[in-house]
Amino acid sequence: MLIATLLVATQMLYVARTPTFGCSSIEEVSALDRLRSDPKAFQTELYEQIFTGQCVEIVKGKVVEGSGSATSPFVLLIDRRIQPPGFLAPLRDFRRFKPVSSRNRIDAGHAAAAADAQKQYALSGIIVAKW
Predict the structure, then answer these.
(1) 41-91, pLDDT tens digit by residue?
(2) d(CA 2, CA 87)
(3) Which of 7, 16, 117, 128 is 20 to 30 Å from the Cα of 60, by its Cα?
(4) Secondary structure of the chain as H, E, C letters
(5) Do the beta carbons of residue 75 and residue 11 sit within 8 Å?
(6) What's the pTM?
């Protein structure tokens, strides 16, 4: 029970800096990561893994819920609560998402972008479920 509480407490929001992917195993993440230098081979392998249900494609700007992975410090465990057991994704493809709070003073453009990202995250459960 304590371990589950700690895992849930460490969940944070992240936003994808680049188009990326998430997979069900560290081996699949590593294999796809090695293929990134060859875009055609990477895309082919990614779509094969998506077709078999092993991976998902993540668009740039998508907000995900994530935590560090116990298997590797370079991997992020994402969307565990939305689509259990979640997916592993390359950590370097994400940055922490800082939601807008009443204490923050930011310009209107940034506030609108943050609000859109929060809406996207709220809807991501529906989108992922339809995937």
Answers:
(1) 999 999 999 999 999 999 999 999 988 877 788 899 998 888 778 899 999
(2) 23
(3) 7
(4) CHHHHHHHHCCEEEEECCCEEEECCHHHHHHHHHHCCCHHHHHHHHHHHHHCCCEEEECCCCEEEEEECCCCCCEEEECCCCCCCCEEEEHHHEEECCCCCCCCCCCHHHHHHHHHHHHHHHHHHHHHHHC
(5) no
(6) 0.67
